[in-house]
Design a protein that fits this description.
The structure is a single chain. The chain is of the alpha/beta class. The strands form five sheets. A seven-stranded mixed β-sheet has the order 13-16-12-17-18-11-19, with helices on both faces. It has a six-stranded parallel β-sheet with strand order 3-2-6-7-1-8, sandwiched between helices. A hairpin with a 2-residue loop joins strand 14 and strand 15. Helix 1 runs antiparallel to helix 3. The longest helix has 21 residues.
Length: 719
């Protein structure tokens, strides 16, 4: 009875969908859990409920996660629920534990090979053996290709064909990558070491080829849980199948809309195909979002609703559970420095208003974008931390470039224009201003050095003014030495240690995290989606990246992009993933006269006032609600508005819709504005119509009769 009551307490506070997941019968269970829907609570409650009811023993459960942090959180929650002893580990940690335990048996008494922390050193040596010179960035990209191949169960001799089928953007000619792969494997064996993929393979081999090992492992682990199942790669799936050994007590949790690691070999196909591969599987959808406001949830739904491809088949439409919050904002800036400065200013305002700096994040597509925000936050005196990457001036390639720039002051003529001098100096570290190379690390290195060239262009546009007399001055072009001093100043300013600060992170490294306020920046074509997303599948993954970024925000969300990279630069288009909004209202900054480009434009993202969904269509934005949401129209007011419009249109000798459209009248009768600010917030009512009709409309809403607001005169309408 005590055990039964404990298991019942686990169910307390769960929503109906979570309860269905927790109480699902033994066997294959697929929990499709959207962002913020409490998946960790659901899965730990499932384990605890089964254990406390006596259905399973905690020591027979293996829960697999993708990060040590997630595994620790799962163990902690299970302990609080009264179920200690569950093994919650990453795939690699679980495999390493098993391989070490069985090593004496599998290796016939030989010591277990040393595990490589990084492939880069051996890959560099392997590249040299096949006549390929690879710096650290190139070696990292080659190592990434080898990891993809091994995770995808591809051998060196199969790499060329497999890479072509997968449309891999290889860092070198595929045959040469295959040669490096083969040389790396030979070096590994001769040095008596293994890598992480070898360890997973060893665990698979131990179970598949040794019956006694298989029996012992399967006797120990009888019930399996896999978190983030959309991120499983073929090698990990092979290990999972080996653990299962044909059994089906498996619970998987995932969200196909958060599949953003395909480039590493991860595939959502196992999640998508789970019901087909496991006949009779229980499928539960968690859609109640407890993390974000309905406004943020509505925008996330709007973005992912346009998704296509296999992952879109499991798309979840989230339902926000929190109280309403501020509308997300879309900001448009003339250039990236203006965007970064505005973000820093808003971060400072949020901190001064009481938002902890650690509850604010600035998220971008690539780490190379961080420099502008590091600088802007430093100048705004806002502390920050960089998540999952080095600070810009701490990156190895940037430090090397700064050494080369200082050395170049002795060899490059002083009259050389600064941007040209910087390009020439960077040639010493292998940078050229042509297309970025293939490969993620090499491309990121190229982009970081390109950012230095961009800085030089901006710095050169502000020549130093030197006084030559009491009332005279002369402009002096900035030199390479001046630029070096500027870089040193920036580097010194950004080395201030911080603990509690605004998080700067790439969208990939932000996965699994959340903040009160999130800035999604650089949302332009060529950045998100990146120009390197060439196939439909790659473009869809970029869309999912934006979706992941949006769903990191609990309450306050800012989306922005710059019309140009630098002042006066080539114009860019906004990301195709952003909602197509009506930007007619409030688009120009006050004071921006003819011939002047506005510094920034602001577009309010309108949400349904009933369900919180983002409204994209013009009529829906005008009504302030979805067409399927119930109307709360004041029919009597609507009739008075129609009569008033008819009289006004007759007096002006214009069609009725010229005064107000039918949709505007419905919006007025539903929303019943009481002030001019509320009236002008309705799409289609601008300053001009507010001046012409505002007083009459507000009077009608307040209860005035049509006769009272229609004097015997004709409105003067200027052309």
């Amino acid at each position: 009875m005590v055990v039964h009551s404990a298991s019942e307490r686990v169910l307390a506070g769960l929503d109906p969908e979570q309860r269905s997941a927790v109480t699902a019968p033994a066997g294959p269970v697929c929990i499709l859990a959207g962002a913020g829907t409490g998946k960790t609570r659901a899965v730990t409650s499932r384990i605890a409920h089964r254990a406390l009811s006596g259905e399973i023993s905690p020591r027979h459960v293996l829960a697999v996660t993708f990060t040590a942090r997630a595994a620790a959180e799962m163990r902690s929650r299970l302990a609080v629920l009264g179920v200690p002893g569950v093994q919650a580990r990453t795939f690699h940690a679980a495999a390493l534990r098993q391989v070490r335990y069985f090593a004496p048996r599998l290796l016939e008494g030989r010591a277990m090979p040393e595990l490589l922390d990084s492939k880069v050193r051996l890959v560099t040596l392997a590249a040299a053996k096949v006549g390929l010179r690879a710096d650290r960035a190139a070696a990292r990209d080659l190592a990434g290709e080898i990891e993809w191949a091994k995770s995808s169960l591809v051998e060196p001799g199969e790499y060329v064909v497999a890479a072509a089928k997968a449309l891999r953007d290889t860092p070198h000619e595929p045959a040469k990558v295959a040669d490096v792969f083969a040389a790396y494997e030979r070096l590994k064996r001769s040095n008596g070491v293994i890598d992480f993929e070898d360890m997973l393979r060893a665990a698979v081999w131990g179970i598949e080829e040794h019956r006694d090992v298989a029996e012992q492992v399967r006797a120990q682990y009888r019930h399996f849980v896999v978190d983030e199942y959309q991120d499983v790669n073929p090698l990990q799936q092979r290990l999972l199948q080996a653990w299962l050994g044909g059994r089906d007590d498996l619970t998987v949790v995932g969200d196909a809309s958060q599949t953003i690691y395909s480039f590493t070999g991860a595939t959502s196909s196992y999640l998508v195909d789970f019901p087909r591969r496991h006949r009779g599987a229980t499928v539960v959808r968690l859609v109640r979002d407890y993390r974000s406001t309905p406004q943020v949830v509505g925008l996330a739904n709007a973005v992912i609703s346009q998704a296509r491809g296999a992952e879109a088949r499991l798309r979840l439409e989230l339902v926000g559970q929190r109280p309403p919050g501020p509308e997300p904002e879309l900001r448009i800036f003339t250039d990236e420095p203006a965007e970064a400065n505005a973000v820093a200013a808003r971060c400072r305002a949020l901190v001064e208003a009481g938002t902890p700096a650690k509850e604010i994040a600035v998220l971008f597509r690539t780490n190379a974008q961080s420099e502008a925000y590091e600088k802007a936050l430093t100048e705004a005196q806002v502390p920050y931390v960089v998540q999952g990457a080095e600070r810009f001036f701490e990156r190895a390639e940037v430090r090397q470039a700064m050494v080369a720039l200082r050395a170049a002051t002795r060899s490059i003529p002083g009259e050389t224009p600064l941007p040209a001098a910087v390009v020439e100096a960077l040639a010493a570290v292998g940078w050229a201003p042509d297309a970025a190379p293939a490969g993620g690390a090499a491309r990121e290195r190229w982009e970081a050095l390109a950012a230095l060239v961009q800085l030089a262009e901006e710095y050169a546009a502000t020549p130093e003014v030197l006084p030559i007399g009491p009332a005279a001055a002369v402009e002096r072009p900035v030199t390479l030495a001046d630029f070096n001093d500027e870089l040193a100043r920036r580097a010194a300013a950004q080395h201030v240690p911080t603990v509690d600060g605004v998080t700067l992170a790439s969208l990939h490294s932000a996965k699994g995290l959340e903040w009160d306020a999130v800035f999604l920046v650089g949302l332009s074509e060529g950045t998100l989606p990146t120009t390197y997303a060439r196939t439909a599948e790659q473009v869809e993954e970029e869309r999912r990246l934006l979706y992941v970024g949006i769903t990191r925000a609990r309450e306050w969300l800012w989306l922005s992009y710059a019309s140009a990279r630098s002042p006066g630069g080539r114009a860019r288009r906004p990301s195709r993933f952003l909602p197509q909004l009506d930007r007619s209202g409030g688009a120009e900054r006050a004071g921006a006269g003819p011939g002047r480009r506005p510094e920034r434009r602001r577009t309010q993202i309108v949400s349904c006032r009933i369900c919180g969904a983002t409204l994209l269509a013009g009529p829906d934005r005008k009504l302030g609600r979805c067409p399927t949401c119930p109307s709360d129209i004041d029919d009597e007011l609507h009739e008075r508005l129609r009569e008033w419009r008819q009289r006004v249109a007759g007096g002006q000798r214009v069609p009725a819709y010229v005064v107000f459209t039918d949709a505007t009248l419905v919006a007025l009768a539903e929303r019943r504005p009481a002030r001019a600010e509320e009236l002008i917030a309705i799409a289609g009512i601008g300053p001009r119509k507010l001046g012409l009709y505002g007083e009459a409309v507000l009077a009608l809403v307040a209860g005035a009769a049509v006769d009272d607001v229609c004097p015997e005169k004709t409105f003067e309408i200027s052309p």
